Amino acid sequence: MALLEANNISIQFGGLKAVDNFNLQINDKELVGLIGPNGAGKTTVFNMLTGVYMPTEGDIALDGRSIVGKKPYEIVKMGASRTFQNIRLFKELTVLENIKIAYHHDLHYSTLSSILRLPSFWKYEKLAEEACLEFLDIFEMREYADTLAKNLPYGKQRKLEIARALATKPKILMLDEPAAGMNPQETHELMETISLIRKNFNIAILLIEHDMSLVMGICEKIVVLDYGKVIAQGTAEETKNNKDVIRVYLGE
Amino acid sequence: MNNKMLKNYAINLAVVILIFTGLMGMMATGMLNKYHQGIIIFILINVILASSLNLVTGFLGQLTLGHAGFMAVGAYASALFSVALKGQMPNLLLLIISLIIGGIAASIVGIVIGIPALRLRGDYLAIITLGFGEVIRVVINNIKITGGAQGLTGIPRIASFQSAFWIAALVILVLYRLTHSKQGRAILSIREDEVAAEAVGVRTTYYKVLGFAIAAGFAGVGGGLYAHYIAFLDPNTFGFMRSVEILVIVVLGGMGSLTGTIVAATVLTILPEALRGFSDFRMLLYSFMLIVMMLFRPQGLFGTGEFSWQTLYDRTKLVHSALRKREKRGGIDGSTGSK
Ligand SMILES: Nc1ncnc2c1ncn2[C@@H]1O[C@H](COP(=O)(O)OP(=O)(O)OP(=O)(O)O)[C@@H](O)[C@H]1O
Ligand SMILES: [Mg+2]
Q: Which of B174, B185, B304 is the closest to A101 by Cβ?
């Protein structure tokens, strides 16, 4: 059984069928690329997979359980987390606080223990502090722990958003154009971060990307979307030579 | 709890006790008369009202305009209780139970209103809470048990400077602890970016309603204190303008700064009184000062940060060492370290 399975999902915005009969299977630890030109419907697929939009047709299952109709935070709890095309950090909070917020499911204390500062509060806050700092260590960002998120350089903001998504302990991580707006140096660092994730976390990754060459190099499987429809699916080699893909990417 | 935090707690506690005994002393010696004492109690009530609103507006990031409605619910609920039971228990106990009842009543109304209202954002939320606030006032105006438009009389005057002071201190302590916990972080994340908060697993609806309920509850406590100090309730004192006054304190003090709220509540309660001499120009001057303030410091007196003695100490130390360095270097020949 696949980790994430989308079966014939479609979504309609008024007269526009933004995604039409989309199918996807991602297995444990697999790295899958989702590519396609502007407006193809990639982000919309993400929004359906993470509960932001509800598909008008079809079903999505995560670990064998349907997630259609569930709230985004419930889906996070079930093991899928994401980043956004235009970075969405908690800007006025520190890097460490950004991570702690994503980590809060492992902190088991009530509102009353916060107000009374009961032992459970201190125990779990200490745990959160240590675990989140260690987490920053993995990404070599401990030195930024007390920096406000908005003051990080662009590349580091992307990195923090990825780290924050990982702090929810997902089984699958979805990255929406993480390389958008990056210079070659930052893109290179991003690739390193992705291989770091593959090494340190045993999770699947679904990667949206504009840039074909970037995806071709690292993804085991590639899905190509155009006007809401899947036009090709397979290994990098297969998709690269697909005539529909060539047409979409290189023009007629 | 580490040493630094323990030290901060100790310093803050000492400062609070110092202020309390100082004020008590000034009242005993007559330096502060009954009129002054009244103003101080109003400051404390405004601290409670504004800091609770700050939880919703400053920390949670939701603009609401009906805070006076919750104050009214708390005021009437607690007053009705104490009117019925006065003389049957010691005054302090009666006050405490009344305030708890006022707080719980306001909190329940807060949840009932909050669940549908908090689905909306921005201007829409502001307008719907404004509407609910007015509904509460109109209802109180038109039912028998509250005394209707004639007002509610016979409330025991059992709130004093002492009780108001410690209740305000308690409210601030609870709000501080709440905002510095995982719940507080969840609340802040909603202010920062609600979509991102949901995407990292924060139950946004739950935390919004939680924040709203706690804020409404404390507004109810503030209303209860007001009722038991004034000893008379007129529904029209809990109108829209009252909500705006509370909001102005929050904005002036800084969204998300409790210490800012305390300072702003003090300034904005004293200011209209101090300007009484200017009679007609009073409100004009008051508004003018607010406009100047918003032009030059739109983030409020304290921004989103809290004042802390540690930071003040660190800063003065920094300034001192900078000054000393300059002295040492002296004169023009101050080039350092460049090879
Ligand atoms: N909430 C919405 N309401 C109406 N139309 C929408 C909505 N969200 C997306 N669309 C439309 O759906 C189509 C697909 O958009 P989507 O953002 O998924 O594209 P994309 O593949 O992510 O493109 P890009 O590479 O530019 O990010 C577009 O035509 C867009 O205008
Ligand atoms: Mg997109």
A: B185
H/E/C letters for each residue in B149-190?
HHCECCCCCCCCHHHHHHHHHHHHHHHHHHHCCHHHHHHHHH
Q: What are residue A32's phi and psi, to 5 degrees?
A: -115, 135
Contacts with B35 (C-beta within 8 Å, 6 or more apart), sequence order: none
Question: In the predicted model, is pLDDT for residue B264 greater than 70?
Answer: yes
Closest Cα to atom 30, ligand 1: which residue? A39
pLDDT by residue (tens digit) across A160-183?
A: 999 999 999 999 999 999 998 888
d(CA A42, ligand 1 centre) in Å:
8
Model confidence, pTM: 0.90
Q: Which of residues 64-103 of A touch B (CB under 8 A)?
A: 71-73, 76-77, 81-82, 84, 88-93, 97, 100-102
CA angle at B237 for the pair B232 and B241, rounded to the nearest 5°: 160
Bridge partner list, A61: A5, A66
Residue pair B199/A88 in contact by the 8 Å Cβ criterion: yes
CA atoms within 13 A on the CB side of A112: 0
The closest-lying atom of ligand 1 relative to the alpha carbon of residue A225 is: 21
B251 neighbors B304 (Cβ within 8 angstroms): no
Long-range contacts of B305-312 (CB under 8 A, 24+ apart): B305/B254, B305/B257, B306/B176, B306/B257, B306/B258, B306/B259, B307/B257, B307/B259, B307/B260, B308/B8, B309/B8, B309/B11, B309/B12, B309/B15, B310/B4, B310/B7, B310/B8
- Confirm or reject contact between B283 and chain A (CB < 8 A): no
Look at strands A57-62 and A65-66 and give their pairing.
Answer: antiparallel
Q: In B88-125, which positions are buried (b, 16+ CB within 10 angstroms) versus exposed (e)?
A: eeebeebbbebbbbbbbbbbbbbeebbeebbeeeeeeb
Which residues have a Cβ under 8 Å from the Cβ of B45 and sit 6 or more positions away? B164, B168, B222, B225, B226, B229
Which residues are within 8 A (CB) of B97 and not within 5 positions of it... i.e. 6 or more apart? B81, B89
Domain spans of chain B, in order of start: 35-330
Put simply, whether B201 touches A (Cβ < 8 Å) is yes
pLDDT tens per residue, range B291-327: 887 787 777 777 777 777 777 777 777 777 766 766 6
Q: Contact, B214 vs A114, CB < 8 A?
A: no
Cβ-based contacts of B306 with chain A (< 8 Å): none
Within 13 A of B18's CA, how many CA atoms are on the CB side?
A: 6
A-B C-beta contacts closer than 8 Å: 92
- Mutation target to probe the A interface, by most A beta carbons within 10 A, among B200, B202, B208, B302 is B200
What is the per-residue pLDDT for A219? 87
Cβ within 8 Å, pair A97-B188 = yes
> Cα–Cα distance between B307 and B85 in angstroms, integer?
42
The pLDDT-based confidence of B273 (bands split at 50, 70, 90) is: confident
Q: Report d(CA A90, CA A82) in Å as an integer.
A: 15
CATH 3.30.450 fits B35-330, yes or no: no
Distance from the alpha carbon of residue B249 to the mean position of ligand 2, in angstroms: 42
- pLDDT reported for residue B327: 62
A44 within ligand 1 shell (Cβ under 6 A)? yes
